[in-house]
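Record 1 of the preview.
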Amino acid sequence: MRTIYKIVIPVSLGVLGLFVLSSCSVGIPKGATAVQDFNADKYLGKWYEVARFDYKFEKNMDNVTATYSKNPDGTIKVDNKGYNYIKKEWKQSVGEARFVDDKSVARLKVSFFKPIWAGYNVVDIDDDYQYALVMGNSLKYLWILSRTKEIPESIKQRFLEKAKKVGYNTDELIWVKHN
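->
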């Protein structure tokens, strides 16, 4: 007697596969250019998230910081923390960043859930590495970072104008509270 096995693949698994494929984009938005002559060592350390687009991983979060340090293998450790003011609890997510190509170009890919990688592109930074404009792989992801909890108005306007030129709707930015 021959046994016949029937394999059933749930629809959700197919959707998950599409999600994984679409989430592995390490591109840069059209019209954006990553910082050249980037110095990763100067970028390391603690950054305050000043503004961002709302998306599920940071929903209802304030007091958000990102701390970057070197891993022994040369990759960059990404340690994100924030306070969920609805659930009244701190959240932390630790991941890894790697350069897409040349380490002097600020195009990285970051992963918090391997093997899923996402684009992390520093497209503007001041000379002293105190303020940074970071774009994801699409117009859905944008961050303004600062070494302090505030950002000068001139830098803020510079970053907003650059983001608008690329196509971001900066009116949708969430200005993160730090208290």
